[in-house]
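User: Please fill in residues for this 1205-position structure.
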């Protein structure tokens, strides 16, 4: 086993033994390898070895946990191979499968199953699927709101009106769910509600509240940003003889006003701050009509305008005067109390419903574990339980991967199970924390990193930074460092991108041409209606991919090879409506591409079509599902067809009209109504009637299977564009139906209702994945999905896409530190206005979202191994946009936090950085800012500004003719002339039931998983029996025959011969027969059988066999009465009603309840079946057959049947 060369910092992570360690591991730094090696090191420590099951290892995903176990197993196997006599290593290999290596939810689930009795939790609890949980949430929420409305609380009603939109309260209901989901990330949700409710009781000056302090801080940052702009303008004016006299005094006076405003903001009250902002409005520059240097003049004016615009927005942050703001705070507190009470009630109802169903969700796992590990302390706060102390002794060390993505509840769990936080090992990278929508809290990582000193082997808590990058070429790491040195600052996102964070290229790559980082700016204006910006950018990217595919060499395990399409990945912030257009355009340009969206399953045409068909089968009076079913590929009706059908009757339900159309035959068909349309309507209804019957007895997944088979839906989907994806989606729908049935639900109606509720709750499912890991295609995926992956060439596309700001548009906003803020409304005029708490919360949310967008960009850029390409489409005046950006760039290396936060897209940040890159001369020229200070960069960028290529179909490969190879041609002729020797058997089934061989073979149409009760017991809803209940409908002839066969199978013949009525009662009491079946058995026919000669022969027999099963091979040629190649057999299965022995030979009896007039009818109908019985039983019982008899209960006699010897 080769020794790996670890860096100094990596070796410190592996060998540190005392205290808690926080490892800040940059992208590509080998953190997983370090984590594995640390665990191996703890196991093999010569002084204090630790068993692998005495460590708790927490990963972010289940695949990551499985990979961790696999890596550990491989590492242990290598060491055991090197030292086979090391029994300790062998013991660790045996302990590994039971080691606590899992996700946080896996650990919590195991903890709850061990201690369910302490939480009043069912030992058979299960973790519910998200779709199931969503439906239960909806039910609990509906009950919660109904209860609160009935209370008649005026404040609650006013709150619901305030937070609702339109004619319903769905927006208010969404707000309740948002707050409930939000507080689940906190270890003690009720405590969070209590703490935030107390924030609104303060009567202090608004400037001193948490919201006021944040707004003041933002004002100070904005004024500092404006001052930087004016200082640059003053420097330019001072260097211009023509502009110095006109501009310098005005700019200087404006600067002095802003400096005074900064001082007032820090020291004065709310109303005084408003007055200071009014006084600091910048004075307009005087007009200059003739200037020898218009470019400098324009730049100065642009800088002053940006400063004035930034300062001009500040008064809006004040909302109103101090008195009004105090009133707004009190208002918010009163209504927040009602909202918090509603959330508490919802939590109680939701928990009760989950408990009733013995299910938990992921939040329950975390909070259940916290209740086991923490309890209220007498002095306030929380303390560890005895169980927590016990667990802390069980685990020598707790190792947490991806710590930057944890929340406060999870962090509390780690602390509770540790030994006073002295045995924790955290690994993560706060720059890659991109799961804010899952309530991840990167500030937890930042707080620990700021508190822990650098590792020196002495401190009980320390931090180590892994900055060596073993993934990427230096061209990639240099580009990442160049961009984020300018963008990532503590003011902008909580951390400074300094030497501690910069990537150090440490991967070994040979020199290769063409690996420069590219910035591709696709320009153009609106073209054809269907030629969207996405398509234009996709064509430009396709052009670059095809060029690289031909010329770029990729390093693979140290060896160079030509680039493959699978080496390329296109990353986007969001796929939603963009991925499909990108993939289609790439394919049109000759680039094989694939994407997998994370939602939209129900909206795919093939799935929505099948769901409409299911809804129609469930309820044929639904007209929209009916129309969708008619138009679906399964039936192929056209709009003209539907119009002709509807013209038969414009008012009746559509289903009634379709039935009328199906019956319009001959003289009953209206003039002009096509005969073929009548036949298609009839065929359509035959299928629907059949499926409606099947839906009563089949589970939803089996019904879908029949729909797919009989309507050819899979074949039709496969023949369409993206056929493989469509087929996979249809199969996935069947899988979802199967899972639904396994959760205890049954039937089509329940499944349709389940789908409807999912759609109403906007709970979508992920479409199927159809591409294997090794497929040679360009992958298009979200940046979030790419986390943890790497690709040789990465395109970060759609950088011009604007940031989503919807989160700050809601009437009520939520923040972990600032609580909730909401709008106010005048109920008389319906005028709405903002409040101080909402203004502060909106500002905080915007800052945190911009910080996360920065981290998203970092993740995207660090996925590239050999080449990074940054792409954006611009249809605006690029020069003007660049000039505006250049005005925000000062002399400092890093952009101001205000400039970072005010950016509208990822592309804005990239262009801001590129303007100061040594390779950005073309951008600076367009911006008119050639004198912009440059920043050092080790490697050049390839910056391209190009128009989008024209839309063209992929060029077909030119085919060249060549003379055929005569040898190969002869081989092909021989192979195509081959005739399959068993062609006659191709359409022959391999297995048959003997009962299918009768003249009118029994077709078992309803092969259901469970025979419904109404197949045995029929009720007439319109009639009543003697007891006043619904009367039973009479059984059909076949059902009466089944009842008689059941009696003959289970009856005791001696007792039945003496008293058949008593024997029927016995079988009913034992539930072999239902009461209705027992009543329909004809006693006279039974008495006639038991009084007849056949029963006396059975009575005298030494051996009577009932329901004798057999499975035998049977010659196909004899059975099918046709010439069959070879000695082929069919498998025949059957059950003989009765076989008895007489004089050493077998007598076969088959009971029949058919209504016939002559014995010959039965003989003709069942001769083949009895012939098979004779053949089968002669072989299986190894005795000759003397007779084959049919006993007809209708005729009251036995009938001999000739058979083949």
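Assistant: Residues filled in for all 1205 positions:
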């Amino acid at each position: 086993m080769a020794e790996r060369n670890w860096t100094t910092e990596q070796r410190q992570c592996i060998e540190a033994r005392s205290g808690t360690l926080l490892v800040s591991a940059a992208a590509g730094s080998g953190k997983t390898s370090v984590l594995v090696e640390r665990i191996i090191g703890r196991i093999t420590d010569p002084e204090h070895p630790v068993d692998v099951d005495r460590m708790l290892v927490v990963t972010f995903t289940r695949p990551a946990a499985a990979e961790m176990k696999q890596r550990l197993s491989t590492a242990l196997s290598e060491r055991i191979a090197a030292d086979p006599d090391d029994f300790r290593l062998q013991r660790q290999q045996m302990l590994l499968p039971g080691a606590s290596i899992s996700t946080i939810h896996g650990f919590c689930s195991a903890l709850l199953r061990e201690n369910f009795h302490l939480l009043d939790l069912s030992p058979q609890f299960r973790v519910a699927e998200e779709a199931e949980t969503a439906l239960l949430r909806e039910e609990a929420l509906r009950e919660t709101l109904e209860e609160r409305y009935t209370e008649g609380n005026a404040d609650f009603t006013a709150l619901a009106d305030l937070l609702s939109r339109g004619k319903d309260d769905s927006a208010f209901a969404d707000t309740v769910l948002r707050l409930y989901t939000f507080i689940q990330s906190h270890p003690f949700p009720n405590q969070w509600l209590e703490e935030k409710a107390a924030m609104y009781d303060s009567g202090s000056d608004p400037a001193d509240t948490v919201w006021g302090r944040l707004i003041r801080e933002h004002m100070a940052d904005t004024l500092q940003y404006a001052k930087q702009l004016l200082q640059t303008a003053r420097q330019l004016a001072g260097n211009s003889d023509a502009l110095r006299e006109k501009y310098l005094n005005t700019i200087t006076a404006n600067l002095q006003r802003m400096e005074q405003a900064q001082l007032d903001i820090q020291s004065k009250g709310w109303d005084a701050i408003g007055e200071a902002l009014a006084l600091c409005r910048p004075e307009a520059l005087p007009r200059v009509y003739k200037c020898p240097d218009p470019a400098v003049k324009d730049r100065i004016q642009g800088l002053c305008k940006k400063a004035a615009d930034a300062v001009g927005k500040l008064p809006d942050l004040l909302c109103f005067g101090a008195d009004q703001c105090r009133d707004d705070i009190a208002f918010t507190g009163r209504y927040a109390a009602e909202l918090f009470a509603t959330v508490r009630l919802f939590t109680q109802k939701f928990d009760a419903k989950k408990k009733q169903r013995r299910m938990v969700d992921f939040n329950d796992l975390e909070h259940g574990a916290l209740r086991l590990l923490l309890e209220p302390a007498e002095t306030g706060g929380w303390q560890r339980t005895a169980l927590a102390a016990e667990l802390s002794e069980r685990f020598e060390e707790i190792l947490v991967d991806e710590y930057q993505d944890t929340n406060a509840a999870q962090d509390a769990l780690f602390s509770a199970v540790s030994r006073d936080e002295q045995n924790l090992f955290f690994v993560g990278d706060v720059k890659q924390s991109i799961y804010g929508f899952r309530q991840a809290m990167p500030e937890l990582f930042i707080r620990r990193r700021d508190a822990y000193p650098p590792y020196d082997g002495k401190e009980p808590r320390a931090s180590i930074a892994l900055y060596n990058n073993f993934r990427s070429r230096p061209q990639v790491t240099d580009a990442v460092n160049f961009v984020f040195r300018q963008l990532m600052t503590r003011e902008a996102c909580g951390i400074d991108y300094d030497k501690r964070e910069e990537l150090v290229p440490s991967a070994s790559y040979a020199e290769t041409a063409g690996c420069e980082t590219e910035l591709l700016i696709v320009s153009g204006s609106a073209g054809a209606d269907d030629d969207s910006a996405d398509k234009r950018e996709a064509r430009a990217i396709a052009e670059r991919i095809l060029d690289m595919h031909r010329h770029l060499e990729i390093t693979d395990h140290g060896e160079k090879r030509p680039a493959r399409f699978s080496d390329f990945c296109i990353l986007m912030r969001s796929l939603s409506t963009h991925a499909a257009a990108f993939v289609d355009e790439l394919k049109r340009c000759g680039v094989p591409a694939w994407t997998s969206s994370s939602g939209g399953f129900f909206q795919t045409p093939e799935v929505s079509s099948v769901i409409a068909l299911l809804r129609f089968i469930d309820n044929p009076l639904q007209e929209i599902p009916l129309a969708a079913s008619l138009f679906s590929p399964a039936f192929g009706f056209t709009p003209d067809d539907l119009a002709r059908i509807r013209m038969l009757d414009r008012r009746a339900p559509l289903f009634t009209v379709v039935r009328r159309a199906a019956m319009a035959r001959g003289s009953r068909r209206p003039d002009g109504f096509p005969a073929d349309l009548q036949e298609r309507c009839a065929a359509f209804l035959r299928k629907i009637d059949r499926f409606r019957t099947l839906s009563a007895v089949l589970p939803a997944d089996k019904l879908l299977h029949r729909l797919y088979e009989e309507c050819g839906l899979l074949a039709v989907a496969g023949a369409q564009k993206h056929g493989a994806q469509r087929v996979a989606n249809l199969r996935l729908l069947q899988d979802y139906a199967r899972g639904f049935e396994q959760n205890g639900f049954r039937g089509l109606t329940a499944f349709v209702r389940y789908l409807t509720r999912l759609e109403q709750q906007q709970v979508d499912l992920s479409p199927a994945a159809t591409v294997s890991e090794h497929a040679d295609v360009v992958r298009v995926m979200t940046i979030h999905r790419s986390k943890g992956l790497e690709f040789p060439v990465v395109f970060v596309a759609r950088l011009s896409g604007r940031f989503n700001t919807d989160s700050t548009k809601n009437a009520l906003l939520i923040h972990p530190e600032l609580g909730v803020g909401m709008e106010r409304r005048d109920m008389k005029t319906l005028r709405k206005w903002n409040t101080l708490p909402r203004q502060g919360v909106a500002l905080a949310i915007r800052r945190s979202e911009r910080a996360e967008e920065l981290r998203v960009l970092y993740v995207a850029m660090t996925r590239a191994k050999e080449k990074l390409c940054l792409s954006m489409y611009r249809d605006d005046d690029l020069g003007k946009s660049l000039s505006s950006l250049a005005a925000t760039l000062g002399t400092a290396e890093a952009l101001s936090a205000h400039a970072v936060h005010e950016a509208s897209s990822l592309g804005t940040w990239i262009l801001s950085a590129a303007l100061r890159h040594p390779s950005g001369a073309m951008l600076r020229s367009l911006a008119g800012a050639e004198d912009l200070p440059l920043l050092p960069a080790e490697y050049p960028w390839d910056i391209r500004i190009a128009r989008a290529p024209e839309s063209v179909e992929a060029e077909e490969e030119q085919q060249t003719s060549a003379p055929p190879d005569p040898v190969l041609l002869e081989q092909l002729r021989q192979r195509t002339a081959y005739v399959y020797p068993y062609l006659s058997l191709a359409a022959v089934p391999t297995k048959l039931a003997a009962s299918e061989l009768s003249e009118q073979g029994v077709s078992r149409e309803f092969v259901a998983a469970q025979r419904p009760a109404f197949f045995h017991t029929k009720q007439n809803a319109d009639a009543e029996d003697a007891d006043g209940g619904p009367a039973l409908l009479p059984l059909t002839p076949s059902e009466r025959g089944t009842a008689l066969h059941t009696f003959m199978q289970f009856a005791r013949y001696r007792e039945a011969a003496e008293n058949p009525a008593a024997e029927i009662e016995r079988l009913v009491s034992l539930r072999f027969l239902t009461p209705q079946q027992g009543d329909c058995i004809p006693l006279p026919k039974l008495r006639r059988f038991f009084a007849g000669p056949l029963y006396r022969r059975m009575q005298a027999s030494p051996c009577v066999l009932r329901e004798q099963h057999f499975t035998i091979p049977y010659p196909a040629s004899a059975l099918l009465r046709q010439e069959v190649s070879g000695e082929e057999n069919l498998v025949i299965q059957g059950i003989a009603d009765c076989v008895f022995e007489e004089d050493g030979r077998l007598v076969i009896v088959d009971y029949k309840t058919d209504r016939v007039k002559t014995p010959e009818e039965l003989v003709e109908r069942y001769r083949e079946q009895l012939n098979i019985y004779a053949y089968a039983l002669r072989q299986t019982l190894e005795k000759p057959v003397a007779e084959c008899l049919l006993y007809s209960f209708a005729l009251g006699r036995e009938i001999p049947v000739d058979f083949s010897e």
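For context: The longest strand covers residues 1129-1142.
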